[in-house]
Amino acid sequence: MSKNNNPLYKALQDHTRKRISLEELNRICQDHEQLAQQISELTEQGILTPVKSSGTNGNLKIPLYMRYTISIEKPQQISRYEIDALHPRLTKNEYLLRNRIQFVKNKAFLLRLSEWLTYDKDSDMMSRRERSFSIFGDEKKLDDHLRLLERMGITGDVLKFYETPEQCFSDYIPVRKNRMTLLICENKDIWFNIRRLMYSSGACSIFDTKIDGVIFGQGNDITGKEKFRSYAQYLGADETRFLYCGDIDRAGFDIFLRLCKEAKDLHIELFVPAYQKMLELSRSIRLPDSSDGRLIIPEMSGILPLFSDDEQKQITQIIEDNKRLPQEILSYPVLADNMR
Asked: How do residues 37-59 score in pLDDT, each as one tens digit?
């Protein structure tokens, strides 16, 4: 429904004050079932702006703010010539001509953006917030106008910015290459010790497996939606093989399986030699109970065949008894003896 056909919009044109309460909107709208939709449409078009400090009506299904600011400009106050004077990139799809209120509400932003597009010859790509600061002196200005930019058809390529990963994982990669093998460590201590050995002694293999870097997976954080895939894209390599090493317990294997599912287009393997060393070192140790109370037993059918029969029995016993073999059993001395 366009604003011209929105009954609420027609009533707001005659409203004498700049703000209006939800109670007044209820009185204006004859069809209360349509009220939320009409308010949503006018909010989308910039006619109504929620006064967030007013709070909501308490309806969890259809929350509405208790007060709104009205922004209705008379058509004659919004000149087509002003819009046409912007850089052609900003007017190409005619969104601003169809929604002139957006030009009025964002005039200062659009004029500065038009000026930058017209005169700035900077061809270097940078992050979105870096670009925002270079244009506006405010690193969040582009963030605040992403929806407007999308509607005008303005992409990062136009403004010469790129998106940074949703989450940047702590890593140590001495030399970036087109083809790399990177080790993901579930826990911080082993990540730090491998990083330390790579930095101090130039070690580039662990348990006879060559690696190009090490990543701190931050426990469950690595399984967040798009997080690791976004990080992997940021690496910019043509081919990256990821090796995963975590705790031997229900939670540790569950993290690995969820990561593989979330980032199924990536090449992620269990780093078997590290797990074999953990099992070897634990044979004479009484393992602690797991603190994971979810009682989720991970699907082990794709994991157990990677190990010998004896190792499979050992892992199965740990999982069934809900014990925990922490990655930290691979202490610094152990790592130092097994890194070259």
From this structure: 888 888 888 889 999 889 998 88
Tokens matching residue 6: 């929105």
Backbone Cα Rg of the chain: 29
What pairs with residue 175 in β-bridges? none
Helix segments in 66-140, DSSP class H: 80-84, 88-91, 95-98, 100-105, 107-119, 128-136
- For residue 251, pLDDT over 50 is answered with yes
DSSP bridge partners of 216: 185
Measure Cα distances from 157 to 92, 125, 237, 300, 322 in Å. Answer: 16, 8, 20, 44, 51
What are the tens digits of pLDDT across the range 258-290?
999 999 999 999 999 999 999 999 998 999 999
Q: Report yes or no: 51 and 15 within 8 Å, Cβ to Cβ.
A: no
**Could you give the 3-state DSSP secondary structure of residue 112?**
helix
CB 182 within 8 A of CB 243: yes
Kindly state the tokens that stand for 42. Answer: 């006018």
